[in-house]
Write a structure and sequence with these properties.
There is one protein chain. The chain is of the alpha+beta class and 285 residues long. It contains 13 helices and six strands. The N and C termini lie close together (8 Å). The structure holds a DNA duplex (13 and 15 nucleotides).
Length: 285
DNA sequence: CGTCCAGGTCTAC
DNA sequence: GGTAGACCTGGACGC
């Protein structure tokens, strides 16, 4: 079972009916490839690559990206041990909780920025515009929504007017430029956050780095951290708060402090426990 | 038409 | 430390 965050956004497409996920992956020396991930033989995922057969190097690159997207290396045993003793979450101990994510940390950061202080419809508008106008087309695809997600390099070259007029990002425009420039020049290394372990860098340190990014606050940092497999922070926002109230059956909206207290027992996995509590209805039964 | 607000963040007190 | 105000956009709603 896989729970997804905001990843039904271009260029990714989730097909609930076929339980498949299609996305566009960059490969070394060649155009991006459109790739579909679906359930394979027991305990395995099957990966279909559109177009001509990929080279060995391309296959290796795709396999690495798919493993990252599915978070295959994540060890959730610590979470399951606690969830099994929690009546409200014991269902998750059967294997839920792997957080679907993007091929790059960069993409998850930009998409998170696109979810702040706006409707989901506007988030979709912004991401579609970025992918359509700045993404690299995959082989044999004409739909711009199947482009690979734009690189920080290309996003750094756009001006504020583009982000306002075309992307419809409003006041977020300078943040896109600043973020892209920082990543493109090496002033920050977002991908390194995706490979560092909790032993090397504690969650608090990663959170500090994320909060330093333009346009990223407590909500955004928590969301990005979940995609990094760092689950200590709760994703508290105008969607998850009322969703939690309904899911928990509370009559009145609990305060953030009350919610945090309820998940304290999960320690470093508190954010995951909270997220599964509010997305139980997303998980295929 | 205007006001409100949606999967917030930042600055200025 | 905590909190009001500003901030783009576009859809929902009231008048």
């Amino acid at each position: 079972m896989v729970s997804h965050g905001f990843h039904d956004l271009a260029p990714a497409q989730i097909d609930e009916r076929h339980r498949s996920l299609t996305l566009t992956l960059r490969v070394p020396r060649g155009k991006p490839r459109r790739v579909t991930i679906r359930p394979g033989r027991r305990g395995h995922a099957a990966v279909d690559v559109a177009g001509p057969a990929p080279s060995a190097a391309a296959r290796a690159s795709i396999a690495t990206d798919v493993a990252r997207v599915l978070h295959l290396d994540q060890d959730l045993s610590g979470f399951y041990a606690i969830a099994a003793e929690d009546a409200a979450l014991s269902w998750a101990a059967a294997g839920a909780g792997r957080m679907l994510r993007s091929p790059t940390v960069w993409e998850d950061v930009v998409k998170t920025l696109c979810t702040t202080n706006c409707s989901w419809a506007l988030t979709v508008t912004m991401v579609n515009a970025l992918v359509t106008n700045l993404g690299d087309p995959a082989v044999g695809q004409r739909d711009p929504l199947t482009n690979a997600f734009p690189t920080p390099e290309i996003m750094a070259t756009q001006n504020e007017r583009f982000y306002r007029a075309v992307v419809r990002s409003g006041y977020r425009a300078p943040r896109f430029i600043e973020l892209a420039t920082m990543q493109a020049t090496g002033a920050i290394d977002l991908e390194a956050l995706g490979t560092s372990s909790r032993d090397e860098a504690p969650d608090e340190e990663v959170e500090r780095q994320l909060l330093a990014l333009p346009g990223i606050g407590p909500y955004g940092a928590a969301h990005i951290m979940m995609t990094l497999g760092r689950n200590s922070k709760l994703i508290l926002d105008s969607w998850s708060r009322p969703k939690y109230r309904r899911a928990s059956g509370a009559r009145r909206q609990p305060t953030d402090a009350q919610i945090i207290r309820r998940f304290r027992r999960y320690g470093p996995e508190a954010g995951l426990a909270f997220w599964l509590s509010v997305t139980k209805d997303w998980v295929a039964q």
